[in-house]
Structure formats: C-alpha cells, structure tokens
Amino acid sequence: xxxxxxxxxxxxxxxxxxxxxxxxxxxxxxxxxxxxxxxxxxxxxxxxxxxxxxxxxxxxxxxxxxxxxxxxxxxxxxxxxxxxxxxxxxxxxxxxxxxxxxxxxxxxxxxxxxxxxxxxxxxxxxxxxxxxxxxxxxxxxxxxxxxxxxxxxxxxxxxxxxxxxxxxxxx
Length: 171
Description:
Layout: H1 2-17, E1 20-30, E2 33-37, E3 43-48, E4 51-52, H2 61-72, E5 76-84, E6 90-96, E7 100-101, H3 102-108, E8 113-114, H4 122-134, H5 147-170
Parallel strand pairs: 3-6
Antiparallel strand pairs: 1-2, 1-5, 2-3, 4-8, 5-6, 6-7
C-alpha cells in the first residue's frame, strides 16, 4: 500500500513540475533565449533546454537569433520548464507549430550545439552529427568554437586584463 501511494505521489509531482504552459513569444535575446508573454500578461525569460547557440560576437550568433525569431516570434508556443540556470532564467523545452521542438530545429539546422552536459536526448546528438557531416550552418566554419569554450576564453581574457590592470597600479 505504501509503495502504491508513494508511486502515485511521485507521478503527480512529475506531472505538476513538467506541466505545460502556453505563451506568446514577444522577444528574442539570442538563439537560445526568448521572452514570452503569459496569459496573465506577465513576461518571462526562457532559456532553451538542451541546446547552446553561439554567443554574441561568435560566428553564426546572428544567424541563430534570426532563425529563432523566424520560427517563434509573435507565435503562441507551449513550454515545459525543466530547471533554472545560474542566472535565474527558467530553462524550458519550447514547442511550436503543432509540435516542433525549437532546440531540435536549431541543432538540425546547424545553429546550435547539443548541450550534452544538460541533456540525455541522444536524438539531438544524432541531429548534430548529421549537421556536422553535411557542413550545415556553423559547421561550415573550420574553426568553430563551442559557446562554452568561447565563454571560458572570454572569462580568462577578462581575468588576465584585470590582473594586468592591478599589476600596473603597483609598478
């Protein structure tokens, strides 16, 4: 009896935590971040789950943002919150146009990386491999750098600059 009740509670909590929400897309920050207007007229910034698009300043960043805009701007979407990122944004799976999964479309079109650190969906890995092999989108670039490596390089450059500035104050 205890196992049955526990299983039922676990099932119900998973339904509640992954409940779907409808919203209208009113802003595109970059390829993997959008702003939506909820039914109560409140705004919510959402970070797309399972994909990482190029950062501003990287090759194909504008292409990814444009693609996301063309796909969902002004449209009604359905999203499922999956987590929060370190900046407090809700991470969500975004669906539009009768079930298209936005993260999947970005990866399939060579405009984002499968974010394997935060995803178990091997289908997205396969789509990335296909885009890579066909040299679609950002995979045309022989010197492509993943967004997480790009961010790390930028952090190291900023730290080096800060250290050099502090060093010059003492000499």
